[in-house]
């Protein structure tokens, strides 16, 4: 069950502060990297909400990311809609799409849900790829950024832009932490632990799964609008299943069902990817090795590692047991 | 049918279910007055589990209806029936693994109170949820184990929690599917004592295959065989019935008769 404990809060706050400091101290390239990390941290948290907490593991999360990016690009570039309104519209479209996917797949579980969402994802990829009106495989360029000059912030400045994205990632964390502490969030965790029991207790499972998909979809769509603004360009690659796979890797490496872990996973993997790719094009190989080690080392990812160290440290200092994160277990 | 006073809380009318050519449940009717303790017994293969699933909503009947407190829920899924006041336990423990007893009962109480629709506050601190957790834990004798992980509980304690989850919803009708299955004789006695101590206004239907277990609890007993009701009466009547002895003991019943 989700608890806003000390380890989680400290990690989230540390990431937020590190991001904010880095936004104004890094080189130009570092700022670009930070913006990318923030976008993927938002995506990874939204997938952890869906896969880790609600137990709906999917391989189609990039479809929401891409759909959000394209809705934003089409509205701003082709129709001249204001950026802020286009962002809200993109999130709304993704929420509706998420609701529908959740409702349609509510009986499907485990590997079959992964396959079903993979199919949805690839269908939307092919649709965009083949659609000339959306630029086909060339994508669309000239995507504008949000105009915050009214409150004196220039987002064409890469430090300001990176800082804003880090702040939005922080807000995303707060939003999910708040949702997961609520009755709604606890019901999702209960459903992940024992769906049959929750049904027997009176929970209408379809509505809760659809709502979880809608919320995760809306936030992933929001990440898409931010990704589009960061790159100032959208392409079908946003929706490709390898993007979904990367997000799932971030979540598993960071630590499923930990919320702060996936954000850390995004920072570590994307930074490593750029570091390693200066030496070799086979960066994915090293990330793969890293992932295998993380899974073999208990399956709780980087967050589990940190939590374990803190627990051992606090136990040696005080006899009081530390109230840590729950482990996943088989049925009782 | 039931003649004990008060309104009818649970009723089944002409429930039938066929799997292919096999009639697993055949025209079963039942009626439980508010507060009645009713048991359904029958030998293995009598159709007890199918009847239970028809009542709880896991299966839809071919014909017939299920009525909870005046509402026909015969076509509704299990979660909707639960919202009309029907709660069930499972024959095989079906708990929230990896969570504490408190969290298990809290989830059940929270769903029962409709707090799963609440987006703005944590239900585990809700005064009514906390109260329900404590009262329910008292009913199922788990007051001292509230902070224990379900994985660390004994089998007997897990069975108690299984019933506790169904009770934390404060149901009008409680369906118990073989509550003592897999228990040792001592644990069985403890479970029966616990069930006897539950609030008197709770309407309870217990499905069991062991006749002796239900004599101490049930006010009325329905005997099922080959999917049909073959006898209904008080425990004394059932105990005295030659027909029931015949079903349970076959020719053995005639030897000492």
Description of the molecule:
- The complex is a heterodimer of chains A (332) and B (257).
- Chain A has one domain.
- Helix content of chain A is 72%, strand content 1%.
- Chain A contains 13 helices and two strands, in the order αααααβααααβαααα.
- Chain A is globular, with a radius of gyration of 20 Å.
- By secondary structure, chain B is of the alpha/beta class.
- Chain B has two domains: 1-78 and 173-257, P-loop containing nucleotide triphosphate hydrolases (Rossmann fold), CATH 3.40.50.300; 93-170, no CATH class.
- Chain B is 34% helix and 24% strand.
- Chain B contains ten helices and ten strands.
- In chain B, strand 9 (220-225) and strand 10 form a beta hairpin.
- Chain B is globular.
- The two termini of chain B are 29 Å apart.
Lay out the secondary structure.
The complex is a heterodimer of chains A (332) and B (257).
Chain A: H1 6-25, H2 28-53, H3 61-78, H4 83-104, H5 110-130, E1 140-141, H6 158-181, H7 183-193, H8 195-201, H9 205-231, E2 233-234, H10 241-254, H11 260-277, H12 283-296, H13 301-317
Antiparallel strand pairs in A: 1-2
Helix pairs in contact in A: 1-2, 1-6, 1-11, 2-6, 2-9, 2-10, 2-11, 3-4, 3-5, 3-9, 4-9, 6-7, 7-8, 7-9, 10-11, 10-13, 11-12, 11-13
Chain B: E1 8-19, E2 22-33, E3 37-41, H1 48-56, E4 63-68, E5 71-72, H2 78-83, E6 86-88, H3 101-112, H4 127-139, H5 155-167, E7 173-177, H6 185-196, E8 203-207, H7 211-215, E9 220-225, E10 228-233, H8 235-240, H9 242-249, H10 252-255
Parallel strand pairs in B: 3-8, 3-9, 6-7, 7-8
Antiparallel strand pairs in B: 1-2, 1-4, 4-5, 9-10
Number of domains of chain A: 1
Percent in helix of chain B: 25-40%
Question: How do the strands line up in the largest sheet of chain B?
Answer: 6-7-8-3-9-10
The secondary-structure class of chain A comes to mainly alpha
Number of domains of chain B: 2
SS summary, helix count of chain A: 13
- Distance N terminus to C terminus of chain B? 29 Å
Contiguous runs where pLDDT drops below 50 for at least 5 residues of chain A: 319-332
Give the overall shape of chain B: globular
Number of strands of chain A: 2
Let me know the number of strands of chain B.
10
H-E order of chain B: EEEHEEHEHHHEHEHEEHHH
